[in-house]
Amino acid sequence: xxxxxxxxxxxxxxxxxxxxxxxxxxxxxxxxxxxxxxxxxxxxxxxxxxxxxxxxxxxxxxxxxxxxxxxxxxxxxxxxxxxxxxxxxxxxxxxxxxxxxxxxxxxxxxxxxxxxxxxxxxxxxxxxxxxxxxxxxxxxxxxxxxxxxxxxxxxxxxxxxxxxxxxxxxxxxxxxxxxxxxxxxx
Length: 186
What we know:
Number of domains: 1
Oligomer: single chain
Shape: globular
Strand order of the largest sheet: 7-6-1-8-9
CATH architecture: 3-Layer(aba) Sandwich
């Protein structure tokens, strides 16, 4: 029986792909991103990836990766997830010619799932590093918010191990990981 649904964003949340990211004005430089897709195996896992992997092993948790990445089934993105994270129960991503905003894309794919009988009333948790996506998704999906804060690259390396051990300690004590990543308020 499914007792929780956990939705993980990918970039900046469970995966560090910043080496392939460049801003073009106030948005991602999509051409640069796609031109550097071949560097995907250099993406690094972030500490929250350990919680994601633990959730995958728990049969009572339905795990979703919801990303704004443009993917084609079984492309480099799928290969990276299989190799480094494990495939979720559901993988939400944009198609190659989908220009919807990320939150709209994610909501459109996930909301119908929540109307299925087996998911009625099941708590939904969203882990996201984009606060506007997080607010929109949680409002539409009636979900718990878990804001994943971005760390400067120099701090990331120093804090990665500490954060990982904090997550493990909270799990061992039976406390929700949300104490570390954000609010439990809906």
